[in-house]
Design a protein that fits this description.
Chain lengths: 339, 339
C-alpha cells in the first residue's frame, strides 16, 4: 500500500452559512501502516448526515468541533486492509467514524463489524441497519413514547431518518403523516413506504393540511427540520404530545443564526414536552434494536432506500450540499471510486 | 343589597400589545340575588396573574378567551353574602374565578372555602396557599422532577410563582439561582427567601453570570418569562436538564408576536426536555400540596409575600400593568375598597 496515496478532505475554515468550497482543503498523505494493536481500513462508503454541519461550527456541543486543518469527521464503511489487532482480520467490513478520506488507521475502538450480503448491500449499514435506523428507533420509541393509535407527524420524511421513523410508526399501529419537499418524495412515502398521508411543504400550507390530516391533533412529532414547519406542528399538538428534536436542517446554514419556535408556548397549552436526544446514549441497546430492525426488514415490513452517489472524496463537498437542498431521497451515501 | 351597585370591568376589545384603557369597559349592574341553589359572593381581593393576558387573546388555548363584552376573568377571594346553597353559609370566605367585579352570583362549583386568621391574611389564599403555590409546587416537583443537589434556576424569581419555586427548591436541598429585575428584588430573594444567588437581568449579563453561578450547568429551569432569558438558560443546561414552561411574560405584549427560543437545539445537545403544564390538571392533588405548603409556611421554612394594592375595580386596568412592568414583588393582589 505504501506507494498509494490517501486522499483526504480537511476543514480549512469555519463556514458562515452554506459551506462553500473555500471551507475545504484537499490533501494527500501516504497510506498509513498500522501501529501495534491497530488496523488500517480502506474506506468504501462515506455517510452524509445533517449533523456534520454542526460539527463544523465552533463552540460547545455534544461533540467537540472538527478542528481547523483536521480531516472532516464522517461515518463510513470500509474494509480492513491491514491488521495488527486480534479483533480484526484483513477483509472484515467495518463501520464507524472513518472520516472523509480513503484510508484510516485506527485502534478499532468504536468500529463495528458488519456482514454485507447479496441481499444487504454495504450502504444499508449506514442507513436502516446503522446509526440512521437507530436514531429513528430510539427517537420514536423511547423519546417519543409512541403508542398504538397515535397520530405521528415526521418532517424530513423522505430523508434517511424520517423515512424510517414513519415506517416504524406504521409497524406499531400509528397513523403517520410525512412532511417532505416535492411530489416525488410525497408519492414515495405514501406509496412505497405506506405512510397514511404526505404534505408537500413546497406547494402546500402545512398548517392548514395538518388541520385536515390530524383533526384530533398530533401525538408525536419527530422533527428533523426546525423552522416554520416546527412552528406549524406545534400549532397542532394534541394534549400530552411529545415533540422529538432530532435535527433542524432548515436552520443549520442560516447566516443570522437559528430561529426558535415561536409557538413553543403550545407546549403549555397542551401539557406537551419537547425533548432532544442523541443516539449514542443508546449504544448499550443497539444490538437489540438492530435485531428488531433487521427482522422487520427481512419480513418486508420496512424498506431501506439509499441514495448512492459514486465519486471520489474530492466530490464530498458538493455531495454534502445535496442534503441542504433536499436533493436526496433516503440515505445519502458517497461510494468511493478510486482515482 | 338591592340598592347597591355592582361595579364591573369588561373586555371591550382585543388588545394589540400592551392592553391600554381602550380595551376595557367599566359597567355597573344591580347587585345580583342568588337563584335557587346558588350564592352571591362579595369580592374583596382580585388576583392579578400574567396568564390573564393570554385569556384576552382570541384563538385556541387551554381556556376559551374572554369574550368581548364579558366581565374580565380573574381569580379572587370574597365573602358569601347571600346563599340558597346548603354547601355555603353567609360569612364563608371563598376563592375561585370571581371576575373583575364587586359581586358575583354562582352555583358554587369551583369555589373553595378558606379560613383566614390573624396569622394568615386572606390574600395569602391567592398566593402561596392558592393557585400560585400549587403552580410552583407541581411545576417544580412533578414537571421539573427536582432532585436533591440539583442546580435550579428560576426567572421572574421575585414574582408570585418564582419566589415560591426558589424556596421550595431550597426546602428540597437544591442550589437555587433566581433571575429578577433590580437590586431590591435580588436582595429580597437572596436575603429573606434564602436563594443561593440572584442575577439582576437589568444590569447583568445573564449568560455570563450563569456560567459563574452554575458552572456545572442548570438541572432544572423554571421559566416564567421567555425571551432572551430563556435563551440564556438554554445555553447553560446540564445533561438531562428539565425546562419547565410556566409562563412567558416578556412576550405576552410583543406586538410582532412571540419570539421563540433560538437556543432550543441545546435540548438535543444536553438530552434535555422542555415541558409545559397547567396547574388545573393537578386539582385532585391540591389538598395534599396545600397541606404540605401550609406546614412549611407554619414552620417558617417558606415565606409568602403579597404585594397588596388598595383600590376599586376601576383601578384594575392600571394595577394589572404592574405585572408587565415588573413593578410587583411577590403576589400582586388588588384589595377592593368600596366607592
Amino acid at each position: 500500500m505504501s506507494n498509494e496515496v490517501n486522499h483526504q478532505v480537511r476543514l480549512a475554515a469555519r463556514p458562515q452559512g452554506t459551506p462553500g468550497p473555500e471551507v475545504w482543503e484537499h490533501t494527500t498523505e501516504p497510506v498509513p501502516e498500522p501501529g501495534e494493536g491497530r488496523i488500517v481500513v480502506r474506506v468504501s462508503h462515506i455517510s452524509l448526515d445533517p449533523a456534520m454541519r454542526g460539527w463544523m461550527n465552533e463552540g460547545r456541543s455534544y461533540a467537540p468541533p472538527v478542528g481547523i486543518g483536521e480531516v472532516m469527521r464522517a461515518l463510513g464503511l470500509g474494509e480492513v486492509v491491514a491488521s495488527r489487532n486480534a479483533d480484526f482480520a484483513v477483509g472484515d467490513t467495518v463501520t464507524g467514524v472513518l472520516g472523509v478520506q480513503e484510508y484510516v488507521e485506527s485502534d478499532g475502538r468504536g468500529l463495528q463489524k458488519v456482514s454485507p450480503t447479496a441481499d444487504v448491500p454495504p450502504e444499508r449499514y449506514l442507513a436502516l441497519l446503522g446509526m440512521t435506523g437507530m436514531t429513528a428507533y430510539f427517537g420514536l420509541f423511547d423519546v417519543g413514547a409512541l403508542k398504538e393509535g397515535d397520530t405521528v407527524v415526521v418532517s424530513g420524511a423522505a430523508g434517511a431518518v424520517g423515512s424510517v421513523v414513519g415506517q416504524l410508526a406504521k409497524v406499531k399501529g400509528a397513523r403517520v403523516v410525512g412532511i417532505a419537499g416535492g411530489p416525488e418524495k410525497c408519492a414515495w412515502i405514501t406509496g412505497e413506504l405506506g405512510f397514511d398521508a404526505a404534505i408537500d411543504y413546497r406547494s402546500e400550507n402545512v398548517s392548514q393540511r395538518l388541520k385536515e390530516l390530524a383533526p384530533e391533533g398530533v401525538d408525536v412529532y419527530f422533527d428533523n427540520v426546525g423552522g416554520d414547519i416546527l412552528d406549524a406542528v406545534l400549532g397542532r399538538l394534541a394534549m400530552h404530545a411529545r415533540v422529538v428534536i432530532c435535527g433542524a436542517i432548515s436552520q443549520y446554514n442560516a447566516e443570522g443564526g437559528m430561529t426558535g419556535p415561536k409557538n413553543y408556548m403550545n407546549l403549555l397549552v397542551n401539557r406537551a414536552r419537547m425533548e432532544g436526544f442523541l443516539v449514542g446514549d443508546y449504544l448499550p441497546r443497539w444490538g437489540e434494536a438492530g435485531t428488531e430492525l433487521a427482522g422487520w426488514l427481512a419480513e418486508g415490513r420496512l424498506r431501506s432506500r439509499e441514495d448512492v452517489v459514486d465519486g471520489t472524496v474530492a466530490d464530498f463537498p458538493e455531495v454534502f450540499l445535496k442534503l441542504f437542498r433536499g436533493e436526496n431521497t433516503g440515505k445519502l451515501v458517497l461510494r468511493l471510486k478510486r482515482a
